[in-house]
Amino acid sequence: MKIGSCSAIVSMSALLLTLLVLLQAMGFTGGPWDETQLLFYGIGVAYDLLSLLFLLPVALLGLVAAIHSIGYLHGHGAARSGLYWFFYNLTLAAMLMVPLMRSAPLFLLSWEVMGIASFALVIFDWDAAASRRAGWIYLLACHAGAAFLIMMFVANSSPLSPGMLWLPAVLGMVGFGLKAGFPLLHVWLPSAHPAAPAPVSAVMSGAMIKLGLYGILRFVLLPGDTLLLCGWLLAITGLLGALLGIVLALPQRNIKTLLAYSSIENIGIMTMAYGLGVLGVAYNVPGMAMLGFTGALLHMFNHAALKGALFLGAGAVYRATGTLNMEKLGGLMKRMPWTGGAFAANALSLSGLPPGNAFLGEFLIYAAAFNGVINGHGPLRALSLLCIIALATVGGLAVAAYAKVISAVFLGEPRSDSAAKAREVSWTMCGSTLALLLVNLSLLCLAPYILPMFTPLLTRLAGESATGFQVPDIALLLSMPSILSLLLIGVTAAASRWRQRLGARRQDAEGVTWDCGYAAPSARMEYTGTAFAQPLLDAFASVLKLRRQLQRPVALFPGEIRADLHSQDLALSSVWQPLFGRFGRLAIKTHSMQSGFLHAYILTMVLALVVMLVWGMFCHRVDRPATPPTAVTEEISK
Amino acid sequence: MMYSVNHGLWWTIFLASLLLAPLLFGIINKVKAFFGGRCGPRLLQLYYDMFKLSRKAGIFSRTSSGVLQLAPIVSLLATVMAMLFIPGGLFRSPLAFGGDVIFFCYLLGLSRMLTILAAMDTGSSFAGMGASREAHFSVLAEAVLFAIVVFLAIVARSICLSDLLSPLSLVTPGISVPAVLLVAGAFFIIILVENCRLPFDDPETHLELTMIHEAMILDYAGPELAMIHYTASLKLWSLCAVLALLLLPQRVGGALTGVLAYLALIVAFAVGIGVVESIMARYRFLKVPHLLVGSLAAVLTAVLLLLFF
Question: What is the pTM of this model?
Answer without folding.
Answer: 0.91
